[in-house]
Amino acid sequence: KVAIKGIERELICPACKELFTHPLILPCQHNVCHKCVKEILFAFEDSFADAGSESSNQSSPRIKLSSPSTDRIDRISRSGTKRNSLTPRSSLFPCPGCQRDIDLGERGINGLFRNFTLETIVERYRQAARAAIAIMCNFCKPPPQESTKSCMDCSASYCNECFKIHHPWGTLKAQHEYVGPTTNFRPKILMCPEHEMERVNMYCEICRRPVCHLCKLGGCHANHRVTTMSTAYKTLKEKLSKDIDYLISKESQVKAHITQLDLLLKETECNSERAKEEASQSFEKLYHVLEERKSVALKAIEASKNLRLEKLQTQAEEYQGLLENNGLVGYAQEVLKETDPSCFVQTAKQLHVRIQKATESLKSFRPAAETTFEDFVVDIAKQEEILGDLSFHSSGLEIPEINEKQSKMYNKALISWECPGKTDSADIYVLEYHKLNREEETTTWQEIEVCSKSKIISDLDDDSSYAFRVRGYKGSICSPWSREVVLRTPPAPVFSFLFDDKCGYNSEHLLLNPGRTSVESRAGFPLLLGSDRMQVGCYTTLDYIIGDTGIAKGKHFWAFRVEAYSYLVKVGVVSSNKIQKLFHNTHDVSSPRYEQDSGHDSGSEDAFFDSSQPFTLVTLGMKKFFIPMTPAAPKDPASRILPLPSCLGICLDCDKGKLGFYDAGCMKCLYECNVDCSGVMYPAFALMGGAAVHLEEAVTVKYGEYHDDI
């Protein structure tokens, strides 16, 4: 048998660190006092109320905060719960035992079971701890006698005489259950918290908790596997007994592990002291370097000061001599008193030169030395940034790398990274970014703490380049920064639309997916039969489809992907007043030398790109991007053929009448032309043969979670 005092650790509440009082069993199987559960939930909801102010002052990941994390607070805010004066309403509970957010369900605290078994064990411990303190009878006349037993049905303690009086033989009270003196009274029957009038008589094997028959018939356990309470009691007791016997049989192994842990404790103490000493030495070296550089800087400033003071003092003395009866002027006045011409000329020649110099200096006064010390300002911006990032670097912590292929700049920025070694991953990552601006002299990085390996960033400026870098933290140890990656945002706000399945849509030749985000041309029998009837000429049918939303003004950008196997795809825009002409012009020329009006091969390669067509489209196909033939286009046909980007973007500026085609991966403009925006403009696509176009998916929180799972 295990001594009562040996299990004290199991009887301590993880929240208040005291013996359990009315413990509740959480869904994670940890126990917490009833009052502690309410206090934690109240504090949790209070922290949610202050989340706005706390989120603006997030600390470094090297500092662990005791307050609830912001992501937990966000989850509470999404549940729409509020606190009243009596009971916290939040369905999420931060378990102090496992440090996880536990969903308490709709009933919250009221849906938790009270752990009466644990209460009984705690009461035994209390009785053993205060064996000298007696429990007095509740019914004796003063002075009360020491109780000898307690009635569980009456929830009271009695001495022998009072028990006989209140539980006479031959009455129902004589059948009450009584135990030794105790202050812990629990109900004789465990009732269901969901159905308060029903006693629990079954055990749900899925949820691992007792339930009543109503829970099984129509409650939340209707489709769960349940067993009888007696079977669950027998099974769990056998398992617990076997596990206890196994642990007791491994007592020698446990003692060996305890001995090993004691050694590890001592080793940890020694290693921590050694690490402290090494860290102190490192900082002392920095202090020594700073003191040395400080001494050199102060000496240089002092030497410059003395030299300047000496020059200024000499200059002041010279000007002092220009005053009457002083210095040079006084000497000159005495020379003028000389009456001997030869002696006067001998002295006055050199004196006159000095007087002339003094006169010139009066005309253009200039101090002999500068009074400012701008050249002695110490620039510590870079050093301050480096010292701010000073931390413990570990060679075992992998340097994360930003994956440019998986990262995406669209309506929002999705930044993804990975660790090359896939081992010793960090607990948390810090992502930093800043806008590249040549006008700004200093760089200010914006910092975001991330628990996963991807992050979605909103509110970035359009048509701007941003630099990104990331580092990992594991406890107080951090990895070096990753290589900086520069990504560019779209040139305009992202325009969202779907393919229109009504206006001119040819369901025989084109196939839309249910979400209307992808279209595919089906080169089947209708195309072959149509070609079979053509004995002269070289033209086939293009199938057109437009977007379901138009643009009347402003600047907008959208992106899409063309399948690599696509033979011919045309993309661009069409005006609302030319849509009918678009769908009535069913025949298109597949040969660049064919002219529909003349009926013969003219040999002319004039495209009339902007004047002859009712819409503005460029041609894609066979993994190539074809720049249209215009006066400004290169004359060499080979220079007009570019590799087809994996993702193509279109930017329409209705105010300026400009249409640009971009490589959406790097946001580089491939071709730009003028377009008539007199009407409402719609995105337009044309497909022939085997081809497919997929609209680019917008970056959302759900997109980021899915992307991270992949």
Automatic annotation (TrEMBL):
This is TRI36 ligase. Residues 187-229 form the B box-type domain. Residues 336-393 form the COS domain. Residues 399-492 form the Fibronectin type-III domain. Residues 477-708 form the B30.2/SPRY domain. Belongs to the TRIM/RBCC family. Keywords: Coiled coil, Cytoplasm, Cytoskeleton, Ligase, Metal-binding, Microtubule, Repeat, Transferase, Ubl conjugation pathway, Zinc, Zinc-finger. SUPFAM superfamilies: B-box zinc-binding domain (SSF57845), Concanavalin A-like lectins/glucanases (SSF49899), Fibronectin type III (SSF49265), RING/U-box (SSF57850). It holds the Pfam family COS. It comes from Uria aalge. The keyword Repeat applies. PROSITE patterns: B302_SPRY (PS50188), COS (PS51262), FN3 (PS50853), ZF_BBOX (PS50119), ZF_RING_1 (PS00518). Residues 51-92 are annotated as: Disordered. It is found in: Cytoplasm, Cytoskeleton. GO terms for biological process: acrosome reaction; spindle organization. The lineage of its organism: Eukaryota, Metazoa, Chordata, Craniata, Vertebrata. Residues 258-285 form a coiled coil.
